Amino acid sequence: MPIINRVADLQPDIQAWRRDIHAHPELLYEVHRTAAFVADRLREFGCDEVATGLGRTGVVGVIKGRRPAADADVKVIGLRADMDALPIEEDTNLPYASRTPGRMHACGHDGHTAMLLGAARYLAETRNFAGDAIVIFQPAEEGGAGAAAMIEDGLMDRFAIDQVYGMHNGPGIPVGSFALRPGPIMAATDNIDIRIEGLGGHAARPHKCIDSVLVGAQLITALQCIVSRSVDPLESAVISMCEFHAGNARNVIPQTADLKGTVRTLKADVRQLVEKRIREVVAGVAQITGAKIHLDYGRGYPVVVNHAAQTDIATQVAKEVAGDANVREMAPMMGAEDFAYMLEARPGAFIFCGNGDSAGLHHPAYNFNDDAIVYGTSYWIKLVENTLAA
Prior knowledge:
Layout: H1 5-23, H2 32-45, E1 49-54, E2 58-64, E3 76-82, H3 109-126, E4 132-138, H4 146-152, H5 155-158, E5 163-170, E6 178-180, E7 183-186, E8 188-197, E9 201-202, H6 212-229, E10 237-246, E11 252-253, E12 256-265, H7 268-289, E13 292-299, E14 304-306, H8 308-322, E15 327-329, H9 339-345, E16 348-354, H10 373-387
Parallel strand pairs: 3-4, 3-5, 5-16, 6-15
Antiparallel strand pairs: 1-2, 2-4, 6-16, 7-14, 8-12, 8-13, 9-11, 10-12
Helix pairs in contact: 1-3, 1-10, 2-3, 3-10, 6-7, 8-10
C-alpha cells in the first residue's frame, strides 16, 4: 500500500501523542490540557500561525505551501479533528487507560487529534503544495456543537477556507480501508423532553387518579407509530425514547412522569414531518387521558451532507492511499456529527477510516486502533497535496 514512508517513520510519535491524550480525557469545551498540547506541538512543527481560543477552546494551525495558490480555484483547505472525550467509565485495563474516573476517549477523538497532528508535522516539514492548509482542532463535538461555535468565532472567514474535510474512525471497517458516500451520510439529531402531570393517589384507587405512568406508556407506544405509519417506508427516521422516570413507591400512582428521547432523520422534510407528528401525538394523548403534557422539542445537529465534487476528491485520495478495493460507498448512518455545521458553511466531505474489529463507539471497552494511524495520516497529507497541487 502506498503509505507515505515519512508517515511510517512518524507513527511511533503519533501513537505516543494519541496515548497521552487518551490517558487525559476532557469533556466538551473543557479541553484545556488537550488544546495546550495541540498548540505546543503545532508551534514546535513550525506552523506559520497558531490560533487558540476559537469556539472557546479550539485550536487552528496555518501551514503555508511553497508558494501561494494565486490562480487556483481552491487556495485554502481545512482539515478538522475533534478533541473531546465522553463521560464514560473506561473498561479496557490498558496501560494508558484514562486517569480520570468517569471519563474516557470512547469515540476515538484521541486518534483523530493525533493523526491530524502527524499530518501537520509532515506538511510543515515538506510544504509540497501551493496555498494554505488549515488544521482545525475542535472542542465539544459530543453534544456541545463545538463546530458551530468555531464557525461563529469566524473560523471560515478568518482563514479564508474554501473547502473543509473531516474524518472519523469506523469500528467494523477493516484497518487500511475507507468508507464514504455523497449526499446525506449521518443523521440530524433532535431532542425530546416530556413532562407529564397527572393526578396522583393510592394505587388501590386508580379511578380517582390520572396515572402518569399509564399516560407515559401510551405516549411511547403512540410515538413509535409515527415512523411506521407517518413516514414514507423508503425514507429513514428513528424515534427512541430512552428515559422514563416516575414514582418512588409500589403503592402510589405518581403525580408526574418525565420522558426523554432522541429523533434521527436524514432529510429536512422528514425532520419537519416527524416534529409535527410528535407535537400532534403529544396533544392527542393529553386530550384523551386528561393529563397535562409539556413537550420541549429541541433541534440538534443538522444532517451531515457530503458535497458531490469533494466526495469524489476524497474518494480518489483514499484510493491512492488504500487501493481501489479498500474504499467503498457506505449506507447512511443514523448517528450524528457536528461536522454538519462545517459542511453547511463550506463544500467538503466526511470520511470513515477503518478501526478494525474493535468495540463500538461510545462503548467502555472501545479503543482507537493505532494500526490505523498511517492510513488516516497519509489520507490527510495526500488530500492537501492533491487538492493544492504545487
